[in-house]
Amino acid sequence: xxxxxxxxxxxxxxxxxxxxxxxxxxxxxxxxxxxxxxxxxxxxxxxxxxxxxxxxxxxxxxxxxxxxxxxxxxxxxxxxxxxxxxxxxxxxxxxxxxxxxxxxxxxxxxxxxxxxxxxxxxxxxxxxxxxxxxxxxxxxxxxxxxxxxxxxxxxxxxxxxxxxxxxxxxxxxxxxxxxxxxxxxxxxxxxxxxxxxxxxxxxxxxxxxxxxxxxxxxxxxxxxxxxxxxx
Length: 231
Fold this sequence. Notes:
Blueprint: E1 4-8, E2 16-24, E3 33-40, E4 47-51, E5 56-61, E6 65-66, E7 77-81, E8 92-99, E9 110-114, E10 121-123, E11 133-139, E12 148-152, E13 157-162, E14 167-172, E15 175-179, E16 187-194, E17 205-209, H1 211-229
Antiparallel strand pairs: 1-2, 2-3, 3-8, 4-7, 4-9, 5-8, 6-7, 6-10, 10-11, 11-16, 12-15, 12-17, 13-16, 14-15
C-alpha cells in the first residue's frame, strides 16, 4: 500500500490536491489501478477538472456527479461536481480507477477547481468493472421545469428502464427520451444493461427539452409550409 499527496494551487480556491491512497499492480485477473481522493477548497456546487495524462481503462467517482459536457474519457478528462451538497460536498471526491496501458503517477494528474456551477450532471457510473449493467440519475436544479430529457449513449444498451412516474421512448438502442417529468422531481433515475461497447458517465450526452421548444419547432415548421405554399 502506498500513500502520497500532490498539491496543486487553484486560482479560485484555497487549494486542491490529488492523493493516491492505495495502488495495485496489474495481474492476470485485473488491470493495475489506484484508489484516491481529489481534495478541494470551498467550491459549493462548483466543479473540479481531474486531468490524467491519458485515457484510463475505468474511472468511477464514489461521491460525486460527472459533468458530461466537460468530460472526455478519450483524453482522461473528468469534470467532477458536488451537485447535491447535502452529501457530496464534503471537501474531497473519492475515486477508483484502473489504468489502461500506462500507469500514471499522482504527480502527473492535474486538478483544477472553481465555484462555477454546472446545472446538468449525472451520477458517476459504472461502480465496478463487470461490464454488465449500470444505474444512475440525472441531476439538475429546477429539473421539474423540463418536459423530457434526451439521453444518448456511445454504444447500444438493453433493458433500459426508468423510475416511476417517468416514462421513456426508445429512438434506437443508443438514444432514449425520458418523459413525464414531474414538477416536484429533483432527479431522474434510469438503469440499463450494456449491449455493446463498455462506457462510463463521461461518455454520455444529455440534453433537456420543454414544451416551448416543441411549440417553437411546430411554429417554424408551419412557417416553412406557408412559405413553400407560395411556390
